[in-house]
Write a structure and sequence with these properties.
By secondary structure, the chain is α/β, with parallel strands linked by helices. Helices cover 39% and strands 24% of the residues. Keywords: Methyltransferase, S-adenosyl-L-methionine, Transferase, Ubiquinone, Ubiquinone biosynthesis.
Length: 233
């Protein structure tokens, strides 16, 4: 598929063995996962019995947590080493998730309107064409279904906190994790969603507290934010 950045895939492949190490470079994902899961459950009206697709699932942190809530989860990613780690962890934990190495655009052609819920978290800022991903997510969710996105805002504050602070000062993430130019303003992501045929349900900020090193959801989308959208019908 053309909507792939080989450098980004290689970046995550090199760290693949650390996905489930809660003290590794992936610690921030483990820390925010309860917030992401709660947000998804809130706007999806629960996950029990629902067919869920996790786009850009990586090592399966969110995928497994949704499966534990009773969802039938499929996780897709193009980083084969990350998927291998996800599959091995699924075997160890006993949490069943169907992992596939397939681009979201290809799956959209294969299984349109097949899912009740689609999640695409911390992934849009790593692909050349986020618009293509957003449109494919809309295609994959059933009419009336809900699609979730999370990404980083593009402004001076997000650059200072997510790049300078997180990567160079606090060392929360490896240097070079993010390309600031690919961050998306909420207005830009909202426009992409509406152009794809999705309606905006909610936008919520995710805030990091440096003193306590904890995260919380709240007002303000200056840095990280979550967006819930719905396909009409």
């Amino acid at each position: 598929m053309s909507n792939v950045d080989a450098t980004e895939l290689d970046k995550f492949s090199q760290l693949a063995h650390k996905w489930w190490d809660r003290n590794s470079e992936f610690k921030p994902l483990h820390d925010i996962n309860p917030l992401r899961l709660a947000y998804v459950e809130e706007h999806a009206g629960g996950l029990t019995g629902k067919k869920v697709l996790d786009v850009g699932c990586g090592g399966g942190i969110l995928s497994e947590s949704m499966a534990l809530r009773g969802a039938q989860v499929t996780g897709i990613d193009l980083a084969k080493k990350s998927l291998k780690v996800a599959q091995l962890h699924s075997l160890e934990s006993g949490v069943q998730v169907d992992y596939r190495c397939i681009a979201v655009e290809a799956l959209a052609e294969e299984a349109p309107a097949a899912y009740d819920v689609v999640t695409c978290m911390e992934m849009l800022e790593h692909v050349p064409s986020p618009e293509s991903v957003v449109h494919s997510c809309m295609t994959l969710v059933r009419p009336g279904g809900i699609v979730f996105f999370s990404t980083l805002n593009r402004n001076l504050k997000s650059y200072l906190m997510a790049v300078v602070g997180a990567e160079y000062v606090l060392g929360l993430l490896p240097r070079g994790t993010h390309d600031y130019a690919r961050f998306l303003r909420p207005s830009e992501l909202s426009r992409m969603a509406r152009n794809a045929g999705l309606s905006i349900v909610d936008v919520r900020g995710m805030h990091y507290q440096p003193l306590t090193r904890t995260y919380a959801l709240g007002e303000g989308t200056d840095v990280n934010y979550l967006m819930a959208t719905r396909r009409p019908g």
